[in-house]
């Protein structure tokens, strides 16, 4: 095992000292292009993560490489192509915009904190961004996942990536991790503002459907708090909006494989609603901080079609938090609260550090 060389003593340093305190905003990741060639390595990395697929590795390897990676890249690429923008994948565009906004918000509040974003799968990787922050002089790093609800399949996997980077580093920065913010008042208020703005512009549907990403049901029985946190988000949002239990429903989307996932499933729920006489629905995805494949394609395209096909009359998709001012403020609050107690001033100048170390070594040599 070799440890990475330590800046500032063994490498050239940036001329300008950066902040000693940093935030790494981490999201799931996305392919580099909407093509099967780009999907294959992305899906291979994603679906080889034991946090995501808890099947014995030897068995899963054959299923993944023998079946899934031969079929899914092409199918998924077509879906990505339908939502791709001139700037790239929506997930990356929103993640980058939120990280930049967080940098601005924290600076406006008087914190000198470097903010970078990283992806758990694909680029830029968590390890590359931690390397970059360390090279810039960061000695304290707050790891902030873009997931409001904690799940072993998503949040813990981000933490794993940070730990495995740290395991190769000689001088590890102080690290803090944000587990969740599913009930943070700013997050709930930002969601509520999104819904109210939609209602003001388009009117209110018969039912508000809150669709969260699904996970295998067994994770709930094994103690994962994800299901409970999604329901708490849903209840707090409904309270803010003054909705009764009959006026909203929490559902789970994006099922993968044959196992039972958290129920009720989003699309069958929408079909059942249409068939039982619910004419109009507003559908939102509160667990996704930015729009992505799962919201723009699976919900706003596929689920819409299923609802209308089943006899529904009006399907409104309410966009994710994205760059809404309420959300960007809340993100600043969440980061600010977790940075509390850490100094947020500039790092000592790297050259000054190197000079003081050289002086200390010279002094030691004389004694
Ligand atoms: C295979 C099992 C999966 C689990 C468990 C899972 C959990 C999970 N995922 C997100 C957030 C996102 N997932 C996204 C895409 C996506 N998810 C899976 C599978 C699982 N996710 C796959 C295979 C894919 C890729 C697309 C596909 O081929 O279907 C995305 C969108 C990424 C994008 O590029 O836009 C997000 C976001 C969470 C929060 C979560 C657990 C709570
Ligand atoms: Fe997913
Ligand atoms: Fe999906």
Automatic annotation (TrEMBL):
Gene: hemH
Family recorded in the similarity comment: Belongs to the ferrochelatase family.
Gene Ontology annotations of biological process type: heme biosynthetic process
Iron is among the record's keywords: yes
Physiological role: Catalyzes the ferrous insertion into protoporphyrin IX.
Pfam families: Ferrochelatase (PF00762)
Predominant place of localization: cytoplasm
Biochemical pathway: Porphyrin-containing compound metabolism; protoheme biosynthesis; protoheme from protoporphyrin-IX: step 1/1
Residues involved in Fe(2+) binding: 213, 294
Top-level enzyme category: lyase
GO cellular component terms, semicolon-separated: cytoplasm
NCBIfam families xref list: hemH
Name by which UniProt lists this protein: Ferrochelatase
């Amino acid at each position: 095992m070799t440890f990475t060389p330590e800046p500032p003593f063994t490498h050239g340093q940036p001329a300008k000292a950066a902040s000693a305190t940093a935030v790494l905003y981490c999201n799931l990741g996305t392919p580099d292009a909407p093509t099967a060639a780009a999907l294959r390595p992305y899906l291979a990395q994603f679906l080889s993560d034991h946090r995501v697929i808890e099947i014995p590795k030897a068995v899963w390897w054959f299923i993944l490489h023998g079946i899934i990676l031969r079929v899914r890249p092409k199918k998924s690429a077509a879906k990505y192509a339908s939502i791709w923008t001139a700037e790239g994948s929506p997930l990356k565009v929103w993640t980058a915009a939120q990280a930049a906004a967080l940098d601005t918000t924290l600076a406006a509040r008087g914190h000198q904190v470097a903010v970078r974003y990283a992806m758990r799968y694909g680029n830029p990787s968590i390890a590359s961004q931690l390397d970059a922050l360390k090279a810039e002089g960061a000695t304290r790093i707050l790891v902030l996942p873009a997931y409001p609800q904690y799940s072993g399949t998503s949040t813990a996997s981000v933490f794993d990536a940070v730990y495995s980077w740290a395991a190769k580093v000689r001088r590890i920065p102080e690290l803090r991790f944000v587990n969740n913010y599913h009930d943070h008042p700013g997050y709930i208020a930002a969601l509520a503002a999104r819904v109210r703005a939609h209602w003001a512009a388009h009117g209110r549907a018969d039912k508000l459907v809150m669709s969260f990403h699904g996970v295998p049901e067994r994770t709930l029985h094994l103690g994962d708090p994800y299901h409970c946190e999604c329901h708490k988000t849903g209840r707090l949002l409904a309270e803010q909006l003054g909705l009764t239990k009959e006026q909203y429903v929490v559902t789970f989307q994006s099922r993968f494989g044959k196992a039972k996932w958290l129920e009720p499933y989003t699309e069958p729920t929408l079909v059942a609603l249409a068939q039982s006489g619910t004419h109009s629905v507003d559908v939102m995805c509160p667990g996704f901080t930015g729009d992505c494949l799962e919201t723009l394609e699976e919900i706003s395209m596929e689920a819409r079609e299923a609802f209308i096909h089943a006899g529904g009359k009006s399907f409104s998709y309410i966009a994710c938090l994205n760059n809404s001012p309420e959300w960007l403020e809340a993100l600043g609050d969440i980061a600010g609260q977790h940075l509390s107690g850490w100094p947020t001033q500039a790092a000592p100048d790297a050259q000054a550090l190197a000079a003081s170390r050289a002086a200390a070594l010279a002094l030691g040599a004389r004694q």
